[in-house]
């Protein structure tokens, strides 16, 4: 049954922080992506993860992105993704791992995807976006069974991964079957009015619009999903739903005065938006 994803999800998920909490309570999030060509993607995802309130954010990326990362989002820590020892430790010690924004699909990227899929454990949450999904499709890789997994494909990425072509993707039953085969817990199928498939439900976003049709919009969504999953651990599925809703709700608000909404503007307005939700404003 398909139901509407409503604004109530924000109030269910975005709660007031306990006064005696510290950064360790709000999730350790590792973001992996950003090759030479697509460094902007991981920077945008990082800005969104930090803006969404993740307790500690680490970025494993190409060394070429270090200066830009430090100047744009100094809150985040850095791991050189070619330093296997540091990368292995980062994969083991973070609660949430997002792989894919700007990762690329070359041999090194494929190696990284294989390593992450083989390393994550049952206490972690794995989010796969962008290039990671294309790599998985090209190499017939599936998600690890014991880990809570989320994929955020656009329709072409989902076509590659599931084998279900674009015109058939509104057949909900078919997607459900593919989800079972891939071992995927939550599928965020991005499009105009994005669909979210969970174990028991299918929900559709009914806000958002073409002002979001610009490169980097999905990278920011992936960063918010990671930040919410790390922070609002009580219910990871709801955290993903709230992230999807907040991303488009902010864009819709900005569209009142912006012909196109810059993805980084969404990332930067998250703290203000979340404060308003928490205060019921
Ligand atoms: N600043 C940066 O660094 C940026 C880096 N980025 C990074 O680039 C990497 C590659 O990601 P990607 O999405 O750009 O390329 P790919 O996976 O080949 O998909 C494009 C193909 O799919 C088709 N298509 C059909 N339906 C669609 C739909 N609903 N939504 C979207 N596309 C749809 C589409 O059709 P067409 O445009 O031809 O009509 C086209 O044939 C990835 O790692 C990402 O993170 C980007 O985020 C941009 C900013
Ligand atoms: N016409 C539209 N209406 C609503 N949302 C849209 C529209 N076009 C794009 N989006 C949203 O923008 C994001 C695009 O994601 P994606 O294609 O992965 O972008 P990128 O990889 O460039 O960051 C998705 O969240 C999608 O739902
Ligand atoms: Mg994308």
Automatic annotation (TrEMBL):
Sample GO molecular function, one term: ATP binding
Residues reported in the UniProt entry to bind (6S)-NADPHX: 41, 102, 154, 219
The reaction(s) this protein catalyses: (6S)-NADHX + ADP = AMP + phosphate + NADH + H(+); (6S)-NADPHX + ADP = AMP + phosphate + NADPH + H(+)
Residue span(s) of domain YjeF C-terminal: 6-277
Top-level taxon of origin: Bacteria
Residues annotated as binding AMP: 190-194, 218
Pfam assignment, any one: Carb_kinase
Listed cofactors: Mg(2+)
Family, similarity comment: Belongs to the NnrD/CARKD family.
Quaternary structure note: Homotetramer.
Protein name (Swiss-Prot/TrEMBL): ADP-dependent (S)-NAD(P)H-hydrate dehydratase
